[in-house]
Design brief:
The chain has helices at about 5, 65-75, 105-110, 115-130, 165-180, 190-200, 210-225; strands at about 15, 25, 35-40, 40-45, 55-60, 85-90, 90-95, 100, 145, 150. It has about 220 residues and is α+β, with helices and mostly antiparallel strands. It has two domains: about 5-95, Phosphorylase Kinase, domain 1, CATH 3.30.200; about 100-225, Transferase(Phosphotransferase), domain 1 (Orthogonal Bundle). A five-stranded antiparallel beta sheet has the order 3-4-5-7-6, covered by helices on one side. The protein has a three-stranded antiparallel beta sheet with strand order 8-9-10. It has a two-stranded antiparallel sheet with strand order 1-2. Strand 1 and strand 2 (about 25) form a beta hairpin. The longest helix has 17 residues, at about 210-225. It is globular and about 50 Å long. It comes from Halalkalibacter akibai (strain ATCC 43226 / DSM 21942 / CIP 109018 / JCM 9157 / 1139) (Bacillus akibai).
Length: about 220
């Protein structure tokens, strides 16, 4: 089945964005769609009629993000580092459905994240840079792990300027400390606390080592309770 046939009822879905950068709310999802992921701008759905496609449906106040992401996929072209882009509708993108778990879910479930996945992200970033893009906003929910290999999911900020240091912080934490956590489930409240702390940081004053040490104090607190 072609994706346009599977998208016939996409317009029934309502995706509502938050004003404080929290995850979107999803309403009125027809039975033929399954919500497989949510972010701060959009939610992703899979159709029972055409499960090989993923429909990324944006909030109507976030359509500029959709247009930006569409432009980025056009520049990236066909590559194994990112989902394949097929087309778009009024408020959605059509991408290849990718199996796997985000690194966020891996940490919650205690699933080991191999070093090869970190190397895959580095290679994906290098590829994006070779296309004249600026890969950023790379965080736990935007990296998918499947059979030990990683793929990047959200490219909507790749045309923005500047470095938000998200990936550098994640990579440093992995290389220096992940061996202490590998295979151990991490409570959601800890991951959400980390996310909120990071979002409160001013990029120009961000100190990677201080932030990581602060996190480990939090982990020790959890282990002692």
């Amino acid at each position: 089945m072609e994706w346009d046939q599977a998208a016939e009822m996409i317009d029934k879905i309502e995706v509502v964005a938050s004003k404080n950068n929290e995850l979107v709310k999803v309403k009125d999802v027809p039975e033929c769609y399954q919500c497989v992921g949510v972010g701060t701008d959009a939610a992703v759905f899979r159709s029972t009629k055409a499960p090989e496609f993923a429909f990324k449906v944006f909030s109507h106040i976030k359509l500029e993000k959709m247009e930006m992401e569409k432009r980025v996929y056009d520049v990236l072209g066909d590559t194994s580092f990112f989902p394949r882009y097929y087309g778009s509708g009024e408020n959605y993108l059509v991408l290849s459905y990718e199996d796997g778990l985000t690194l966020y879910d891996c940490l919650i479930k205690g699933i080991e994240i191999p070093k090869r996945a970190i190397e895959d992200v580095e290679e994906a970033r290098a590829y994006a840079k070779s296309k004249g893009l600026n890969p950023r906003d790379i965080h736990l929910r935007n990296i998918l792990l499947h059979n030990g290999r990683a793929k990047l999911l959200d490219v909507s900020e790749y045309m923005k300027q500047g470095n938000d240091t998200r990936w550098e912080c994640l990579k440093a934490g992995y290389m220096e400390y992940y061996y202490l956590l590998s295979g151990k489930p991490i409570p959601v409240w800890i991951l959400e606390t980390v996310r909120k702390w990071y979002n409160q940081c001013e990029p120009e004053f961000f100190n990677e080592q201080e932030f990581i040490h602060k996190l480990f104090k939090l982990f020790k607190l959890e282990n002692n309770t």
